[in-house]
Write a structure and sequence with these properties.
single chain; alpha/beta; 8-stranded mixed sheet; 558 residues; two-stranded antiparallel sheet
Length: 558
């Protein structure tokens, strides 16, 4: 359906995206690794197999095992860390420090119930798949009745509006009954859910937010849940959209800063953190999303975010990191609305999924070079050169953001996980897979309240590691703050993004990683077990067509 979508978007907007295909071949799915490293793949979702090793370029030094040092030296790096190991202070890594590489794969826009609502044993949709309770029926104002959840076999989702006001409306004071009304209250203009409807040859006002998928559409995701860890209380960190969610993922906060070089001017903002108070989101959409982001990023452009993100602490303590971003399209609008032209997502562009270049501290510490094309991931993984901490961000084509196909997203994620599993770093890697917001889809669990800014709605989340428990369902209350907490506990000696202690004060209202309600990801691991063998899966288990990225077709019209 993506080619149909591309033609529609091009016709409506008259603007073209810049094509990019990291795979290097037009027929390969987004995120496809180079052909030389894709020879080993399996087809049985529940059978574990041994992955081979492949070569790759030496981009940077392999992260040192700082956990082997004494407590005095544990958080040092570089020459001090190496001297620590040579002085005889080393000891076998224990507990969390057996994890030398944390990889966070962040996909787009699905609720937990939309993907795992009928998963056995999870807190899924009441009344379905043996889950206790009555099947919910959500008001449908246009139809004059209520709608119940249903199995949706479509691989091209529609979803609904998904910025802050929509989250508030969907949650409806904890009643969780505003999802259909949110879709139907949106105007008749171009919207991603309406584009998805058109791509599916349905009326432009179709509603699919009550639909759910299972192992028939998502065999690999369900296989990872069956063999590793599924988290059924992972909430997005704020009741907001993609930009805000990514800012929290990296820094534990979202704010508007009047002066990008003075953190004291930052004020919490979960709506449009790049907008001055009172400025029209529509104006930003026209000047930023439509025209401004279609041109290559200017490295000399000023930053936007003056507060501290976790890469500042990583850099300060000599811990390696990379932000792997796939070049393709960006379907969300800068305004938070779901209506704008697909935008080329370039490595140096401070886009909504790639906000690190817009952080002042990233520029001041000369770390922009750590934001790289995702093709580097495959060579890094194959050569055993994964950094200590990394994030893997899709393009619009492989993001699962409506109306991109689920198959393309699942293929992208599987390619990434296969590459890590067949590389020499697998036995010391923890992969955290999640979706950044709910995308307008139904979920039945009211989010808990934390500091007045969160949490947002529940999203799917998985833990995949040689030390992950097998078939375990984690019922702890979690958000993306738990990823920061794990990174800080593993590599930074428990140092937090705390303005009182991190050496770079900012006015954030609290230290998110220290929230009492927040669970501990270490409970998803059994560090006493023998490292588990890889689970190699076919990237396209349903053998459905994976179309070339839509921007290629859009550009071909101009």
């Amino acid at each position: 359906m993506i080619p149909v979508l591309a033609l529609l978007v091009a016709a409506v907007t008259g603007l073209a995206g810049k094509p990019a295909n990291p795979a290097g071949a037009s027929g390969a799915g987004a995120g496809q690794p180079p052909a030389a490293s894709s020879s080993t793949r399996g087809s049985a979702p529940d059978a574990e197999g041994e992955g081979g090793r492949s070569g790759g370029r030496k981009h940077h030094r392999r992260p040192r095992d700082l956990s082997r040092c004494t407590r005095k030296h544990r958080h040092r790096s570089g020459k001090r860390a190496r001297r620590c190991g040579k002085r005889g202070h080393s000891a076998p890594a224990t507990g969390i420090h057996k994890i030398k590489h944390v990889v966070i794969i962040m996909q787009e826009n699905h609720s937990f119930d939309n993907y795992f609502g009928t998963y056995p044993g999870a807190n899924g949709i009441p009344g379905l798949a043996g889950h206790p309770g009555r099947v919910p029926c959500i008001p449908d104002p246009n139809a004059g009745h209520c709608d119940t959840p249903y199995h949706d076999p479509q691989l091209t989702p529609d979803g609904g509006p998904h910025y802050q006001q929509n989250a508030i409306d969907d949650i409806d004071h904890g009643k969780m009954d505003g999802f259909i009304a949110s879709v139907e209250s949106v105007g008749t203009g171009l919207d991603t859910d309406r584009l998805g409807c058109t791509a599916n040859l349905q009326p432009p006002n179709c509603v699919d937010v009550m639909g759910y998928h299972d192992q028939r559409e998502l065999p690999n995701y369900w296989a990872y849940a069956k063999n590793f860890v599924l988290q059924d209380r992972m909430f997005e960190p704020a009741d907001a959209w993609s930009l805000v969610s990514h800012l929290y993922m990296l820094s534990g906060w979202s704010a508007y800063c009047a002066d990008a070089y003075r953190a004291s001017t930052c004020v919490g903002n979960n709506t449009f953190p790049e907008l001055p108070p009172g400025e029209s989101p529509t104006e930003q959409q026209l000047t930023g999303a439509a025209v401004g982001l279609l041109t290559p990023a200017n490295p000399a452009a000023p930053p936007n975010y003056a507060w501290t993100d976790v890469t500042y602490l990583l850099h300060k303590l000599g811990v390696s990191w990379r932000y792997y971003i796939e070049q393709g399209t960006e379907p969300d609008c800068e305004s938070g609305a779901a209506s704008c032209t697909p935008v080329p997502q370039v490595v140096t562009t401070p886009s909504i999924w790639n906000p690190l270049p817009a952080f002042t501290d990233v520029r001041q510490t000369n770390q922009l070079g750590n934001v790289v094309d995702s093709n580097h991931l495959f060579s890094d993984a194959g050569a055993g050169k994964l950094p200590a901490v990394s994030w893997v961000i899709p393009s619009g084509d492989s993001s699962e953001h409506a109306p991109a196909t689920l198959a393309a997203g699942q293929q992208h994620v599987t390619n990434v996980i296969n590459a890590i599993m067949r590389g020499p770093d697998w036995a010391s890697t923890a992969i955290f897979l999640a979706w950044d917001d709910w995308g307008g889809f139904y979920d039945h669990v009211p989010p808990p309240t934390v500091d007045g800014q969160g949490y947002g709605l529940r999203v799917p989340a998985l833990v995949i590691s040689a030390y992950a428990k097998r078939g375990y369902i984690d019922h702890q209350t979690l958000s993306f703050d738990a990823y920061l907490k794990f990174i800080e506990d593993d590599f930074l000696g428990g140092k937090r993004l705390n303005p009182k202690t991190d050496g770079r004060p900012d006015p954030r209202p609290d230290v998110r990683e220290s929230a009492r309600i927040l669970g501990d990801l270490r409970k998803d691991f059994d560090f006493s077990q023998t490292p588990r063998r890889p689970l190699m899966l076919s990237p396209n288990p349903n053998h459905v067509p994976i179309h070339p990225p839509a921007p290629s077709l859009i550009q071909g019209l101009f």
